[in-house]
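Objective 1b. Sequence-to-structure analysis of Addiction module protein.
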Amino acid sequence: MDLQAEKIELVKLLLETQKESLIKKIKTLLKDESENKTFELPESQKEELDRRLSRMEKGETKFYTWEQVEQKLKQAL
């Protein structure tokens, strides 16, 4: 389906919906996209991520699989 057809299909679906919450979400999504908003982390969070990355690169951080985490939680209960 080409872009114009996709737009027409979207307009049809939008006209058919009675869910105000859905319409608000779509409006917000389109507005944010048109304003080309970007997400920016606060400096303190960037610094924390840099510290964690550094620890990981030095091998100072231990990693667990999801299965290992589940097992540890089950043992703790």
